[in-house]
Amino acid sequence: MNKLTNEKIMFNAFKVVAFTIVAIVLGLLLFIFARGVSVLSLDFLTSPPENGMMGGGISSPILGTLLIMCMTVVFAIPLGIGAAIFLSEYTDNVDPRITRMVRLAINNLAGVPSIVYGLLGLGLFVLFMNFGFSVLSASLTLSFLTLPVIIAASEEALRNVPRGYREASLALGATKWETVRNVVLPSALPGILTACILGLSRAAGETAPLLMTGAAYYLPRFSGNILRQFMALSTHIFYMATQSPNPDLTRPIQYGTITVLLIIVLSMNLVAVLVRSYYRRKLR
Amino acid sequence: MMRNMRYKKPVDPFEEMSFDGAEEKIEFDDFNLWYGDNHVLRDVDLEINASMITAFMGPSGCGKSSLLRSINRMNDLIPECRYEGEIEIDDVDINGPDVDVYELRKRVGMVFQRPNPFPTSIHDNVAYGPRIHGITKGRELDQVVERSLREAALWDEVSDRLGDSALSLSGGQQQRLCIARALAVEPEIILLDEPCSALDPIATTKIEALMRRLKEKYTVILVTHNLQQAARVSDMTAFMYLGRIVEFDRTREIFENPREELTENYITGKFG
Description:
By secondary structure, chain A is mainly α. Chain A is built from 11 helices and 2 strands; from the N terminus they run ααββααααααααα.
């Protein structure tokens, strides 16, 4: 076998692998959308479940998921960015072994299964802090789950800010915080925003932690109270598929719910991509 | 042997000099600096005059950049850095306990080897320093920006596009923008750390012409490993080797009549 044939075989092998992945994703999306889109209607999106969840719409799970996401943003983003700023900017005088341990801990947290976060939330927020089964407990749990992703990616974005920007600012007599706030953070913002959106979009689809911290099987209506139980899209799908007296009857609603959840997650990812490319073009 | 390598003070440094009224601005007194265990600057004694260009010249690793960065205490940012001895600006020890390092850096501007404008507009780059130091009125900022850009000989090229990204400028323009940014906080001393090493010859010529103009108002200190540049623009030159000042004199003396063999070997290209 000569080199040229060898080259062609390898090239085609990699091409097949790459396209297989694309095909799997597209196939999955098509399969779901083909069954789900026909269910979608204004009525479906704006009315609550009825008739033992075998009829009606999904307004309360949509609102529940959105509320939880908003609160996760409130908890996770300031904490995550703050920790990333500390790790990237303020560790000059800290023993490097300590920062290494902190980083190791964060990276390991990112790999912890979500059910473990669910147990943590149940023990810490629901029981110990007595927030009960509630939107608050669920949001705090999801914040913990997304924190490692946000911290690691934000720190990466901060570290990619050229050293020259920091030096220029400090040499003008700016303090460290002025430099971070006015120069480093704005430059790292696209990367940080992308990190936050991707972290949150992962949280949006999480199911196990919600099951353990306050997702209800069925609520007659969305309460809007953060100390009460809630319905969420992901847990709604789970309950319909496994706990319903007649799963077959809920099937169209399941596909509709999955479609809505996927649209939310995919559009968040799309926003992340757009943010990144917008800033990239702006900086050129 | 070691004593030999220390520069010998000229009997009267201003004998025959035409720099009337030259006044001392910066004085190093037995200054030593270490990065960890690495002894980077050894027993530096140096007097730098106002309204002149002083060049620190020497091969890579001789400590010239470290010496420059001691003047605005940029070395403070390196955790393992420590020093002994004194640096005085206008007879005040800059490492003293009462010195506000942010005020010091405002008085001592710095321009770096690679042009490093912020990824914002030309206007905002120059306005950054004044904003940090409390100027918030738009009109006032605009005046500072125009004055600084004129002083840095960049105004005519950018006056109609102050809102454009600083990164759209050429390398030489970016470096002049960085000089304008440093001038905007009204420093007394300008430190230039190999400001032309990333630039083409034409851009270099412009920066050198600018340096000659700047010395009328500012004390300019230039670090360079480019002999010709030191010879072209500086009034005084310090030749450094292995962390010591080998010789410090008027530039013409250094190049035409060096007292130390080491200096002569360097300027004749026997090492570098």
